[in-house]
From TrEMBL, chains A, B:
This is Methylmalonyl-CoA epimerase. It comes from Dictyobacter alpinus. Coiled coil: none annotated. The lineage of its organism: Bacteria, Bacillati, Chloroflexota, Ktedonobacteria, Ktedonobacterales. Gene3D superfamilies: 2,3-Dihydroxybiphenyl 1,2-Dioxygenase, domain 1. The keyword Zinc does not apply.
Amino acid sequence: MPRRIDHVAIIVHNLEQALTFYRDTLGITPSEIKEVPTEQVRIAFLPMGGPEGSQLELIEPTPSNASLTKFLTKRGEGLHHLCLQVDDIDSALNDLKAKGAAVLDEQPRMAAEGRAIFLHPKSSNGVLLELLEKVE
Amino acid sequence: MPRRIDHVAIIVHNLEQALTFYRDTLGITPSEIKEVPTEQVRIAFLPMGGPEGSQLELIEPTPSNASLTKFLTKRGEGLHHLCLQVDDIDSALNDLKAKGAAVLDEQPRMAAEGRAIFLHPKSSNGVLLELLEKVE
């Protein structure tokens, strides 16, 4: 059902510090660095592999983001979630519910890149999984 | 320097159980499931996004693999490492050493997909990072 890996999200304390490694040491050029108020995060987008490639996203929670701030305190920086692109998020949501997956959203939410749902890690072997229908 | 995300590795207790979610519920078809004795793991390869796409790898440590078994006991199942493809692993290794990154390998090692080095998560904001030069 999912067609590709859209992005891999890495949670960090501070975007600028993280970019000293990902941009300056590794050499990946960010396409955009922006605040996403609806998600209470700042994101640095690091595209790789051309137009069809998957990208890295460095995510810094803003102070008001209680759940991600708690995650950082408890687990520290590191891999946070994996996002797979689907063609039709409503159909994917219905299918996953019917199969008994632990879907965290009753309806798709607006994410930075389109309409998305999250699955609880207990369904997906410990992985916080996002499914995304891109909206151009 | 890295050209694309090669794979995202998910560590699991049991490949067959994990496939009931990733293959049967999500619908991703494994291209291969094999034991890699040199790494003391079994891997299910789940390619996505066509020839240039990035793939998921489900990794089950064999009982003799002390470090991954310890990781599973301590952290549980979930995202384990991120692999980025480079054109020249020797050049990447020298460059990263010169920049002071915490490289875990003095020389590239043979991995399932080619010649690879790992970076300690302390260099890369908590992410265990693999850099891979593919060998066809």
